[in-house]
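Section 3.1 - Work completed
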Amino acid sequence: MPEKDNIFRIDEELKKLPGSPGVYLMHDSSDNIIYVGKAVNLRNRVRSYFRESTPHTPKIRKMIDQIQRFEYIVTDSELEALVLECNLIKEYAPRYNTMLKDDKTYPYIRVTEHEPFPRITMARQMKRDGARYFGPYSSAGAVKDTIKLLRKMYRIRSCDRVLPRDTGKERPCIYHHIHQCDGPCNGLISSDEYRVNVERVLKFLNGDYDFVLEDLKKRMKCSAEHLKFEDAAVYRDLLESVEHIAESQKITDTKQEDRDIVGLFASEDDAVVVVFFVRDGKMVGRDNFHMSGVANEEKKSILTEFVKQYYSATPKLPREIVLSDDIDDLSVIEEWLSGRMDKKVRITVPKKGKKEKLVNLAVENAQVIMSRDKERIKLEEAKTKGAVRTLSEMLSIPFASRIEAYDISNISGAENVGSMVVYRDGRPHKNDYRKFRIKTFSGPDDYRSLKEVLTRRFEHGIKEQEEGDPEGTPGGFSVFPDLIMMDGGKGQVNIALNVLESLGLCIPVCGMVKDDHHNTRGLYYENKQLPLDTHSEVFNLITRIQDEAHRFAIEYHRSLHKKGQIKSVLDDIKGIGPARRKALLRAFGSTESISTKDIEELKKVDGMTEKAAVAVYEFFRRDDKQDV
């Protein structure tokens, strides 16, 4: 990999490229990674970007204009390059890569077969814990309804007691009394008897609805014969629910194989991919995904990116993935997916027969979803990237992809804490949020607090970069913002600018100015106050950022209060306990206000004696003399 230099000569570096497989990363002038790609031959692939004779899409041409340097990672094979490319795209979300917008986890039904008295629960991840997993399913609501139905039908316990260890320690819960649990927690059913019902649950989850329907019909008939009409009605309702579930399962293959049916529909700069989940020959769910940045891209390229990004994060793969269109590197991706699952995974693009009808159905669904969601997507883009673009134009700066905002909290004169919130492309990026406890002084002083927070943040970031982490380890400080937003006006902005100047950094700083009612009214930038249209998306974005920074700081401060890690300066005054401290703060509002009161005013507070009032008065006067 070439070393980062202050002057990167692209022509010279192109000559050094090896003819090996690997991954390349393109950087812009702010050293952000704007594109990640893989190559069978790095020399040929990377050089092609800078050849005038090579045709490129408008998006790629725009990306090329922004490249200031590139780096590459050599791998032993194309397969290794594919895996690395997927990981890097997921980590950095480069602007010019076609990105999968959704970042979901899929619900599973989990049966704890390894326990003496198994339970049925919903899980978001598959783990090697001895339990049996069914899914994934597209709807968490459907999973919850199914679990509720199975517990009721087969009296499966819903508690998390460890049995048989906790047998008899507590009375049976309400579910036992309403005949929806057989009470294994009190030894009212043996493990063997209980497992008979668990086996019925497993049959149901495996799609054996005929068995379940027959079982419910027998129970309903038996209850009616014994004149237990309420029980019969319950079984009748359960029978109708199961019949509905059974009818909604579409049989797709008599071979009862697991496969995903993937259909793509693309229009202008957006695309939708629909995935049908077929398990044991039955369609068990559907999900859809929006993809961005696909203008002028071929379907082949879009679907290739989807398959790589989606299946790199899917915990359990089917035997076959059926696609509506061809993809690049099909054999390499098949090898990669098969290696992940230690079994053969086939990728097919059917041209006729039942599978083709299914992928066509998936494409039709994608088209319907595109029509339905197009306006919503546009509105979401306007609220996020569109608002950031307008804000950047207002300030005459390049697109501020990463925005950092800072706030200070010092409730009731207690220790100061600071917050750093991060927005990427107009959306909160909570993994990058950071909390700070002020270490160099005590007492309320927002300016000194901001100076310490910013100094620590950027000194740490510079250190990480010097240690060889210019791209930023997740959770680190080495990635610097395109714009800093301070919760306040001229004073807060100048604090930030002074810190940046002392560290040799040049980052735009903007203040979020509030009115007398604590509402955002404008921006302070380069010694000017810029008005804001309160009905604009820019105003809404700035308000969200400001509120989020404030919320994060307040929550951190309160969490420390609950843990007893923060105390008020009033706690240091002899004779002032919790009751008098609360009374003082209730009467005067803040420690600063208390410090200005004379003895007579302090004595008027509920619970304050003359001795306590004198102690408070002298405490703050003594502090004043020491400061001088």
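Second construct:
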Amino acid sequence: MARAAYADSSAIAPSQNGDRVGAGTVYQGAWLSQPVVLHCDVVVVGSGAGGSMLAAEASRAGLHVVLLEEGGYHTPANFNQREGDMLPLLFQDAGGRSTRDGAVTILSGQGVGGSTVHNTNLCKRAPEAILDRWVREHGARGWSASDLAVDYEAVEAELSVTLLTESDVNAHNAVIRRGVQKLGWRGGLLSHNRQGCARSGFCELGCAFDAKQNALKILVPRLLRQGGVLGCQLRAEQVLVQNRRAVGVRGHAVRSDGEPGVAFHVHARAVCVAGSAIGSALLLHRSDVADPYRVAGRSLRLHPSVAVAGVFDERIDAWRGIPQSFECTEKLSFAAGADDRCWLIPAFAHPAGFAGLLPGFGPSHAQRMRDYPRVAALAAMLHDETAGEVRSDRQGRASIRYSLSTDDAAALFRGIKAAGEVLFAAGAKEVVVPLATPLVARRPQDLERVCQHRYRPLDPLLTSVHPMGSLPLGDDPRRSVVDPQGRHHQVAGLYVADGSLFPTSIGGPPQLSIYAAGRKIARHLVADLQKGAGGLR
């Protein structure tokens, strides 16, 4: 069967029913006409940063690995930079996933590579203060900054992580930096995992230029070269447990119309769940995995954000170039209960997304759209302490509850006000805060009203791109789901390797830490299987 080339000979193109790809095999669920039964050492559910890293590392150690993904296998040839096509292709619920009350839109990836395909490539290690807190308060032995250094370094090398340079700073980020510097606030350039970037500005719709050094391009091909199996368009519906030991996964293929297709069953010596903080908690809940202390899914962090827009006299064309190269950390404290806990990061959207975020209707909305080339936007992203919850509804779908606490709401509004101050310092003639009744500020003093605002659901509408923490690690089964090695406290042979593990929010982009977690937990899983353990102590 003919296959299109993908970037180079080391990368893999989509294939059909059990095709051999180099030393590996790819199953594409939409093409399956007969049920599939597979046997392996390790089955990994979820092909994002954590799952793909663990799968590749376990395979390198000599284990036979099956990597499952409910979304499709899409390559740069599929990324046409059109919002209407890419959102359904690359995002859960076509980008419309939200909490039960609609108050928080949650952008989660689907497809091989998970969220690493649509993210903006920011790479930042978890703050030392956060990791120290995990060790001190949650018994996360082995998760200090010095403990994780070897994994961070290995990930940074494999994914070509480098510090962005001055030539990477587009006009939008330069405007934000101008405001931060005028205020004398802390800020600086970020690191990224791109090579050969065309600076098209379409990172969140998949890179058509194949510049992202991510799970899709680097880790999944490595898994296949090592003889692993990839199953895409295969939705895992249940972790199978016998005698308190995970023994496999079963589910159904996803047909091209989204309906369930044929059944599949993967028998395994170990199961690793890595389907995101939403998907992993949902799968364990749907599988009725033992949870005597009712911990699973009850500590979800969403790292919610609100984007504040500034209208300038100058033309900015914020959609051009690398979307995010500069950060402001002036208002970001990692102390528990701190008043200021917001990360300020440039945020922009293409026309459809921008139109959906703008306040107003009819002529007033049209006028705001005409301002599009002269708008800069800055997101206040909250390092949240609110604990949300993930459960499954009667149809087995995700039911997400998240009600922002009073302290978190106050910290968020302080961050929103700070974002407005940066924009004014940069020269904005007006700043728009997207409250239910939009606040249009024409001078910095007008922003004082933000901190007097009372939060309520949908006022303002929150967006989450970094869900984490729903299956936290720790040494106490009464407060955590897995131990510091990623092993489930109650079920032998069951592991978790994604952002679900984090006991708290990390207050910044999580992908690098999730990759590192996948690598770290892979070592423990391999060691457990080699000595015939993989479970309960």
